[in-house]
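Supplementary Text 2. Reproducibility record for the structural model of the 201-residue chain.

All settings were left at their defaults, and a single model was retained for analysis rather than an ensemble. We include the record here because the model underlies the residue-level annotations in Supplementary Table 4.
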Amino acid sequence: MAEVDVPRIARAVREILLAIGEDPDRPGLERTPERVAEAYADFFAGLSVDPLSHLAESVPIGETGAGDPATSDAVVLRDLHFRSVCEHHLLPFVGRAHVAYLPGDRVVGLGRIPAVVDTLASRPQLQERLAEEIADTLEHGLGARGVLVVLDAQHRCVTTRGARQDRSSTITIASRGALADPVARAEIIALIQAGSADRDA
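Retained model, structure tokens:
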């Protein structure tokens, strides 16, 4: 996968400054093309990373004393903060991801789940697609029996331009396998909301 071409971005940003009638050589702007290029290299670093690589070091979940698979009912991670860039306007959207999965015969270190979210968020994205991609990665990378992803984010293209709805947020949900069942999904969403209530109390 190709790396971000930082010098090329800097040249393009200089052209943008000229196009809006600014002087890219004036004090205050002389380093702006390089700063923007460095920021874009960070924002889009996920383009050069395979999200499945974060799940490569999964471990067998083991067996019970009776020899049955020792599967967990659910693993739920709440409040994973993420930032991404909307592919329509190249403006950021930021929010929280809540991720749950029902293990098959393998689990992964809890730090690997935020890494998956960050890698997929670090690309030009749509929030709807981001939720689906996280769910697909966990389902295929872990052989999960079920996956639920809930994203709650604010979009700068909504809060700072057009309608300028500065208090609005967007929620998207992606579910797979056993957690696509409405009852099972509702149970996980209740756990997520309970955590939110505890934080707001």
